[in-house]
Every structure is written in structure tokens, then in C-alpha cells.
Write a sequence for this structure.
């Protein structure tokens, strides 16, 4: 992607100021919602809504199914900032832009982050759509989300945050799988040979987002949880070609179940980020 004219720190600071300027501050946990999962934000109390385009420094997505707004509200006694939609590397965005919002959240004092996405599933025994807790990721996006000075260590996904998702799933009576998410740059879906290859490598889910944000948030000290909404079998695992419309439709089909999980997860993620 092209290099932004500003440094990463200047991008993050401008966006943090842009968010605070709209009252989008003082939140305990941030949720980044991918394709189709946006409806959840409607259940927040005392909420305010701000479109991305109104926030200085916030890059807006051009992908259908990504609403492009922030919603700040209360849920289960905690303040939650929902980022509905995100930009992707395949839109020509630089990793500094893809990761700007999560870095800005950390600047505003937020310690807990939940990243969600839509993904293709590689385990033929899972009945889809389903929800998967991301235990760790493989980044094959081919661009570095961290600077040399930020090199992280270990997995970005904090075990206590993963446990918070498991407990939330239990409380919401929602089935939750777990597995490794592979981040690819897209925007094309995979070939059947690629899916077969990744499945043999022990990958459970493939998608085009999340890995850069997870690495960046971890590097700036946030505790990160990841949730995939597995909308479709990976290419070649089911008859017929994949389409983005199918992904958005399957996301909608599981959105209310995912919403119950997200609601239960809020206070638990906050607790897991502050011990
Ligand atoms: N592959 C990559 N990204 C995706 C998929 C897929 O099958 N489904 C949703 N996002």
C-alpha cells in the first residue's frame, strides 16, 4: 500500500483527538465489528452514533456490509465503543491506517479490545454459520503491521480475554468453537488448493482482516480477544463459488446469536483486562 504522509504516531494522535472531539472517549472496551455483525450496536443504552466520515483521521471503508460508524454506549454496566466496519489492506490502505483506530483506542485509555470478522471455515465437521474464538493467528498478509521498535512477542490474543469469551458463550448459551485464524490479503477468495493446503497446516478459519489490528493493539499494551463468524466453508469444501453477498447473508443469519455473546462478553472482557 501507499505510505501515508504522516508518521504512525501522528496518525494515531490525530484520530484519538478526532474521537475525543465527538465525545467518543471514556470507554472500557472496544469492539471492532466485521461484515454483517453491525446490528449488535443497536442494543446499547445511552448511545451516541458518529459516522466515520465525521471523525477527523478515520479512514472509511468502501466494502458493502461495513456500515462505517462508531457507536458508544453502555452494556451490562460497562462503556463500550463499537467500531462498525473497518478498512482493509485490499482497499489499498497502508497497515498504519488499518491499525490506526485500535492504536487510538489505546491512546484514549482503553485496555480491552474485541476484534471480530467474517471468515471461511476449514473444518468440514463444523456446521455453519458458527462462531469461533481466535486462539492465535497466522499472518500471511505480506505486510508488516509493526515497526521494528514495536516487535511483539507471543500471541496477541490474551488467554484471560479468551476465557472471558468462553464464559460469555456459556452465559449466553451460544456454541463457541476455537481455532487458529489465517489472515490473507485478499480480496479474492482462495482457491480450493489453497484451502486444502491451509487445512493441512492446521488452520481453522481464513479471512482478510484482524491480524494487523491484533498485533498492533497487543504491541501498545491492550489485551486482545478475537471472534470469527464463520460464514461459509472454504473454497472447494462445498459446491458452488463463494460470494461476498453469501458472506453478508450468513453473517446476518448468525447476528442475533453473536449479539447475545457480545452482550455477555463486555463486562467479562473488561474484568479480564484489569486484573
Ligand atoms: N475466505 C476469506 N475471507 C472470508 C471468507 C473466505 O472464505 N469468508 C468470509 N471472509
Amino acid at each position: 500500500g501507499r505510505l501515508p504522509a504522516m508518521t504512525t504516531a501522528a496518525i494515531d494522535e490525530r484520530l484519538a483527538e478526532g474521537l475525543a472531539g465527538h465525545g467518543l472517549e471514556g470507554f472500557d472496551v472496544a469492539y471492532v465489528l466485521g461484515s454483517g455483525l453491525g446490528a449488535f450496536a443497536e442494543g446499547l443504552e445511552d448511545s451516541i452514533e458518529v459516522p466515520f466520515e465525521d471523525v477527523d483521521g478515520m479512514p472509511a471503508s468502501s466494502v458493502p456490509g461495513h456500515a462505517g460508524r462508531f457507536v458508544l454506549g453502555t452494556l451490562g454496566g460497562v462503556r463500550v465503543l463499537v467500531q462498525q466496519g473497518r478498512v482493509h489492506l485490499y482497499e489499498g490502505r497502508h497497515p498504519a491506517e488499518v491499525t490506526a483506530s485500535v492504536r487510538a483506542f489505546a491512546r484514549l485509555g482503553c485496555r480491552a479490545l474485541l476484534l471480530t470478522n467474517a471468515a471461511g471455515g476449514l473444518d468440514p465437521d463444523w456446521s455453519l454459520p458458527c462462531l469461533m474464538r481466535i486462539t492465535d493467528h497466522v499472518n500471511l498478509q505480506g505486510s508488516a503491521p509493526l515497526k521494528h521498535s514495536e516487535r511483539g512477542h507471543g500471541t496477541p490474543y490474551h488467554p484471560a480475554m479468551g476465557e472471558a469469551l468462553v464464559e460469555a458463550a456459556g452465559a449466553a448459551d451460544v456454541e463457541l468453537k476455537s481455532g487458529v485464524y489465517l489472515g490473507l490479503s485478499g480480496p479474492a477468495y482462495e482457491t480450493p488448493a489453497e484451502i486444502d493446503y491451509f487445512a493441512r497446516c492446521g488452520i481453522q478459519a481464513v479471512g482478510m482482516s484482524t491480524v494487523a489490528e491484533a498485533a498492533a493493539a497487543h504491541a501498545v499494551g491492550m489485551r486482545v480477544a478475537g471472534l470469527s463468524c464463520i460464514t461459509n466453508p472454504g473454497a472447494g469444501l462445498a459446491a458452488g463459488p463463494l460470494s461476498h453477498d453469501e458472506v453478508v447473508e450468513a453473517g446476518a443469519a448468525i447476528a442475533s446469536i453473536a449479539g447475545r455473546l457480545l452482550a455477555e462478553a463486555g463486562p467479562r472482557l473488561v474484568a479480564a483486562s484489569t486484573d
